[in-house]
Amino acid sequence: MGQLDGKVAIVTGGGRGIGKAIALRLAGEGAAVLVNSATEKSCGAVAEEIKAAGGKALAVAGDVSEAEVAKAVVEAATKELGGLDILVNNAGITRDALLMRLKEEQWDEVMRVNLKSAFLLSQAAIRPMMKSRWGRIINITSIVGIIGNPGQTNYAASKAAMIGFTKSLAKEVASRNILVNAIAPGFIETSMTDELNAEWKEKLMGEIPQARFGHVDDIAGPVLFLCSDAANYITGTTLEVTGGMGM
Ligand code: NAP
Predict the structure, then answer these.
(1) 136 with 90: CB under 8 angstroms?
(2) CA end-to-end span of the chain
(3) Is 233 a catalytic residue?
(4) Measured CA distances, 113 to 119, 186, 246 (Å)
(5) Domain boundaries, the chain
(6) pLDDT for the residue 195
(7) How confident is the model at residue 100 (pLDDT cuts 50, 70, 90)?
(8) Atom 46 (ligand 1): residue with closest C-alpha?
C-alpha cells in the first residue's frame, strides 16, 4: 500500500531535476502522475519511467505560463487520470543579471514562468479539489525569495511573491480541506545550478551548515510529507529545505 494510492497529482517542470524526483516519488507512493515540462522529450521520458515501474502516468508538454496550456494540463489530469488531488507548482527558470543590466524581457519571463504559472494552475486546480473536498498544493519557491541574492532580483521577487500567494490561497481554501504550502529549497544540484561557476559554488558551500549541496531527493521527501496524512494540519507554511543555509 502506498501513501498516495488512488490520488492524482500534477507536477509541472517534472522532466528534469527537482520536478522529476518529485514525480517519481509521488508515483512510487501510488499516485497517478501527470508530468509536465516545457519539452515533450523530458516529460515523456519521466512518464515512461513511471509506467515501466508499474505506475500510472501521463506526459503533457507545454509552457504552463500560458493560460491555454495550464487549463489543458488540469483537464488532462481530470479526464484521463480520473481527478486531481495534488498540484506541485515546480516549473521555474532563472535569467540572472545585476539589476543595472537586467532586461525587461528577463524580468517578464521569470515572473511569467515562476509566478503566473502557479496562479493559472492553482486557479484551474481548486475547482476539482473543492468538489472532492480534498486537495494539496505545493509551491516550489526558493531560499533566495527569503534572503535575496545579487544578480537575481527578478528570480527572488518571483519566489517571494510565491510565498505571499501560498499564504493568501491557503486562507481562501483551508475550510474546504485544500492545504497550500511552499517548499523553499537551498542549493540543490540540478541543471539550473550547474551554470554557477566554481568560485560561487565554493562561497555558497561556506554558507551551508550541513556542508553539502542538496540532492533532488532531499526535496522530493518533504513534498511527499506535505501531501501525506502526517501533514493534515499544516497549511500556509514555507518549509525551508536548505541544510541550514539562510537561518
Ligand atoms: P531544472 O533542472 O532547470 O528543470 C526545470 C524543469 O522545468 C524542466 O523540466 C523544464 O522543462 C521545466 N520548465 C521550464 N520552463 C517551463 C515552462 N514554462 N513550463 C513548463 N515547464 C517548464 O530546474 P530545477 O533546479 O529542478 O528547479 C525546479 C524548481 O525548483 C524551480 O522552480 C526552481 O526555481 C526551484 N529551485 C531550485 C533550486 C536549485 O538549487 N536547483 C533551489 C531553489 C529553488 P524541460 O525539461 O522540458 O526543459
Answers:
(1) no
(2) 37
(3) no
(4) 10, 20, 25
(5) 8-241
(6) 86
(7) very high
(8) 15
Q: Is the CB of 158 under 6 A from ligand 1?
A: no
CA 17 – ligand 1 centroid, Å: 7
What DSSP character marks residue 16?
A: S
Beta-strand runs (E) in 93-188: 135-140, 178-185
Q: Among 10, 11, 18, 238, which is best to mutate for testing ligand 1, by the most ligand atoms less than 8 A from CB? A: 18
Cα distance between residue 188 and residue 190, in whole Å: 6
For residue range 105-115, list pLDDT tens digits in order: 999 999 999 99
Ligand 1 mutation pick, 34, 144, 190, 215, max ligand atoms within 8 A of CB: 190
Q: Please, are residues 10 and 36 in contact by the beta-carbon 8 Å criterion?
A: yes
Q: Is the CB of 207 under 6 A from ligand 1?
A: no
Q: Is the pLDDT of residue 196 over 90?
A: no
Nearest to 165 by CA among 65, 236, 113, 240: 236
CATH 3.90.226.10 is held by the domain 8-241: no
Q: Is the dihedral of CA 37, 117, 74, 89 positive or negative?
A: positive
36 Cβ closer than 6 Å to some ligand 1 atom: yes
Cell of residue 147, nine digits: 534572503
Q: Which three cell numbers stand for residue 20?
A: 522529476
